[in-house]
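Hi P.,

Sorry for the delay on this. The queue was packed all week, but I finally got your sequence through. Input first:
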Amino acid sequence: MNPYLAVLRAPSVALLLVSQLVARLPAGMVTIALLLHVEQSTGSYANAGVVVAVLSVGQAAAGPVGGRAAGRWGPRAVLIVTTVTTSCSLAAVAVLPELVSRPPFAAFVLLALVAGASMPPVQPTARTIYPTLVAPERVASVLALDASLQEVIFVVAPVAAAFAAAAAGGAAAVLLTAAVALVGGMWFALSGPVRRATIPRGGRAVGRVLLHPAVWPAVLVGLLLVAGSAAVEVAVVAAFASEPPLSGALLAVYSVSSLIGGLVFGVLSVRRWSLVRSLLVVAVGLALSGAVADFWWIGAALFLAGLGVAPVFALTYANVSTGVGPAESAEAFGWVGTGALIGAAAGAAVAGAVVESAGAHGAFAVAASFVVLAVILTTALTVRDAQRLRQRVGPL
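Then the structure:
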């Protein structure tokens, strides 16, 4: 039987996949919505950038804490409280200029911090529940499906926010983000799988799970891969600065390719070197993308690179899911999300600085370099694990 059919036929899996996807849509909308709204309200892109950065800081801090809280007070209670808080904070950002003629910039910053820090722990909760809904041999398939479907967020959500801003202004885009956050978050929180879920309370101090041999590599690999993807966005925008639609088309190719790669990967057998091979595909594609300044060449190279992205995420998620106990799973996935946020900030910052001196070609090189570091890391870990296995059981 097709592994995806087997996964989707399992009780509650399809509901959990779709509801968590809708609940996560605001993550792809909020950046562009806030950028446009704050710039229109304050007349400064610098101010808008600060607000988005503060939001990201709040999200990064909230990831592991939210996952830990789900184990202490129950996922449904934590999801409801955080969903309402972040939705109200975003709505307050949207209507602030209407309530105050010249709102202080600090008010935008404070509300963005609250919105970021109260982002619902949707990802950690969903990825902690998946293994309880499917047979052990199907966990990798459901995580591959999750990793593939998340590309929809990065294709649909920014377009929805940009369309709302173009049609009715930045405030409307932020309000739409808040509405989607409320509806999607509550749907997920009140869904059957979440309502029935029980996440054991973690017994160790916050952060100790980072030392787990399945967690810290997943955090670092995710950080480096997301940094590379963020650098690609900068490179593509810089390469086609005078033709924004072409930039959007290339980034869509990268995301759609990742979706395809993840779906194909989910029906394949996982091997010892699968993670290294997937990262190599991404690294080669990104390196080739900067070789020729041609739209079709870059598109083909990014299509190749994208084929490895979702499989890398699926493999790291599976490693965490199978390596960490239920009591620490939600916090572990929270740290993986925090690593991704740090990677996004680092990749965009480094690539942006390089563009100033070396142009788009340099930014593509930065993107490839981040992923090459991930290849080196995973290769070293794979060789180490193989050596340890030989010592225990003899030559393979």
